[in-house]
Design a protein that fits this description.
The structure holds 2 protein chains of 2 kinds. By secondary structure, chain A is mainly alpha-helical. Chain A is built from 5 helices and no strands. Classes of the chains: A mainly alpha, B mainly alpha. The interface between A and B is medium-sized, with 28 and 25 residues.
């Protein structure tokens, strides 16, 4: 397989990263922004997991029959990053609930209009 | 036993105190615990700095695991100095907290405020002390998440939108750093900072490493609010509770500047950052833009917390300018300004907290006749303002002096001139306040305002006096900053 297509994981990473980033920037709906942020973060998780894969390597569980293992460290790192991502999402959603209580909307433009009329 | 484990305790103590503060439920008890924690943290950071100054770098293996597998804490002069700044500001601001927080944060949310404050402190200290690149990301997120909570506790509803905006931009910044660290791990197979520095040396042509450099640079610049990535900062500082503004303005961006120094000089090395990559030019241009854009926008602000937030953007520009020179004097100026700016912004935001406590607002209108009604608070603001301008006998002068020296050393006359011109802009926005406070008479309502309580004045004036003291007796700060700069310049790519 050619090296460009053989590394298709990285193409997926870049695609997801750009999709997520675009959603964060382009959408005015706060919930959609959080969804975009999640996609963006997920792409990085895939990046880490991909780099841990060793060609022909088995899952990193000690066994006499196996000589080549995949690298488990990126997986451990990304578990931490997933936890961070969950915490960020939870906090963002909590903030959106509070914003909705105060402004009655989750659309960025409408929030700006209300603030300027103060 | 305790002395051996100081580096770990520095982070663990506030981290463990945070949930305890939440469980105490009553605001004042939580404050007592938080205050105690801050004092202990400060004592530990002083002990660490004196140990580093006399005995050299300290390394600490978390859980006894040897690097590069285990996480190593690594304390040299730069970190020890930044640790001291964070812990000291954290303590002084915390001393002012109970009065101000009681009036600005709802009673049932107060212990939550102290919990978030302690978590933020633990995160900031962790970023500074750790010697592991991924660990930096984790602590960065701990401090960021608690910062969003602190900001959102402000009593204006715009605090919520400011916190949300900060969350989005902060997370993007942190994720960029995560990508950068991932790419570094991909090309070197290690996360330990010393190990990374050693293995990156021969890889300067690698496209992966160059991409990692770009990602971390953008990510860190977002975190330290380098122009034009500063958009989250003004609203966050303007609508957060006064105590949170004082703490964040004085510490959070400083820690990000430290991360920048660590990545550029220790991990990537000065040759890669400044010769293979055009970092010097990029930072120079952005720093100058930050100085002028920040100061100009500050002049037109009516909300004074926002005004000082924009002035922070400009002051960060001065630090980055020092870094962009990559010379001994330039780095000394940047590290000095790190300390000096923490002291001045801490005192200014605390004084604004006192003003808010008495008048319920921090707009220019609230300043009318303040020279008569709240002379001590106003005096603190004036001295802080003079320091921002860089008037002799204040700390601001010392750092500007080194910055101009560094620019002249490089033969950059126009830059030195621009630094001075930037100071003139600071004169304009500080004068706005002075004019309102001393030359306008208060209306009836404002005339009834009394001086702020001592509980707020004393911490403010501790910082104001530090402002003057370190402006006159510079031997301590300049000495430490010079050693730190020397350490950074010799650290990159070293075996």
């Amino acid at each position: 397989m050619s090296s460009t297509l053989g590394l298709y994981n990285y193409w997926i990473v870049i695609f997801l990263m750009m999709v997520g980033f675009y959603v964060v920037i382009a959408h005015g709906n706060l919930i959609k922004k959080v969804v975009g942020l999640n996609i963006f973060q997920t792409s990085v998780f895939i990046l880490y997991i991909t780099m841990g894969k060793v060609d022909g390597g088995a899952a990193p569980i000690l066994d006499d029959a196996v000589t080549v293992y995949s690298n488990p460290l990126p997986h451990v790192l990304i578990l931490t990053a997933i936890v961070v991502g969950v915490a960020t999402t939870a906090l963002a959603l909590a903030l959106i609930v509070r914003i909705r209580e105060e402004y009655g909307t989750v659309e960025e433009e409408e929030i700006h209009e209300q603030d300027e009329s103060l | 036993m305790i002395a051996d484990n100081l580096p770990a305790l520095q982070v663990v103590v506030p981290l463990l105190a945070a949930p305890l503060a939440l469980m105490l439920r009553r605001g004042i008890y939580s404050w007592l615990l938080a205050m105690l924690t801050c004092v202990v943290t400060l004592a530990m950071s002083i002990a660490l700095l004196s140990e580093v100054m006399s005995g050299g770098t300290i390394t600490y293996r978390m859980g006894g695991w040897a690097p590069p597998w285990g996480i190593q804490y690594y304390v040299d002069t730069v970190n020890a100095f930044v640790l001291l700044i964070v812990a000291a500001i954290g303590t002084v601001v915390m001393a002012a907290a109970p009065t101000s927080v009681a009036s600005e944060v709802r009673a049932d949310k107060q212990s939550l405020f102290y919990t978030a404050y302690l978590l933020c402190l633990a995160g900031l200290l962790g970023i500074v002390i750790t010697g592991d690149a991924f660990n930096i990301f984790v602590f960065l997120e701990i401090s960021s998440l608690s910062t969003y909570i602190l900001v959102s506790l402000g009593n204006d509803r715009r605090a919520l939108t400011a916190a949300f905006q900060y969350l989005i931009m902060g997370t993007i910044g942190a994720t960029f750093i995560l990508i950068g660290v991932g790419l570094l791990y991909m090309s070197t197979g290690t996360l330990n900072i010393q190990d990374l520095a050693m293995r990156l040396g021969p890889l300067s042509e690698s496209r992966t490493v160059q991409a990692a450099f770009a990602f971390t640079t953008v990510g860190i610049s977002l975190k330290l609010a380098l122009f034009p990535l500063h958009l989250w900062l003004p609203n966050s500082y303007a609508y957060a509770p006064s105590i949170a503004s004082a703490f964040l303005a004085a510490t959070a961006t400083k820690v990000a500047v430290y991360v920048m120094l660590r990545f550029f000089f220790t991990i990537f090395g000065i040759e890669f950052s400044y010769e293979v990559m055009p970092l010097g030019t990029v930072l120079l241009v952005l720093a100058l833009l930050a100085i002028f854009a920040g100061s100009l926008v500050a002049i037109f602000q009516d909300n004074i917390k926002r005004l000082f937030a924009y002035s922070s953007v400009a002051q960060i520009g001065y630090m980055i300018l020092g870094i962009s020179f990559a010379s001994q004097t330039g780095l000394t100026a940047a590290i000095l300004h790190l300390f000096n700016h923490a002291v001045m912004k801490g005192s200014l935001f605390l004084a604004l907290g006192a003003l808010f406590y008495r008048t319920g607002g921090v707009n220019l209108a609230n300043f009318r006749g303040l020279g008569k009604t709240m002379p001590w608070t106003m005096m603190a603001i004036v001295i802080g303002g003079l320091s921002l301008i860089g008037v002799p006998l204040t700390v601001g002068f010392v750092s500007k002096w080194y910055l101009v020296l560094a620019a002249l050393e490089q033969g950059m006359w126009p830059v030195a001139f621009l630094v001075l011109a930037g100071s003139l802009l600071a004169v304009i926005y500080v004068w706005k306040l002075v004019e309102a406070a001393y030359f306008q008479s208060p209306d009836d309502e404002a005339a009834a305002v009394r001086e702020a309580p001592l509980a707020l004045l004393i911490p403010t004036w501790v910082l104001v006096i530090a402002n003057i003291y370190f402006g006159i007796d510079t031997s301590l700060t300049v000495g430490v900053a010079e050693t730190a700069a020397m350490g950074l310049l010799s650290s990159g790519g070293a075996p």
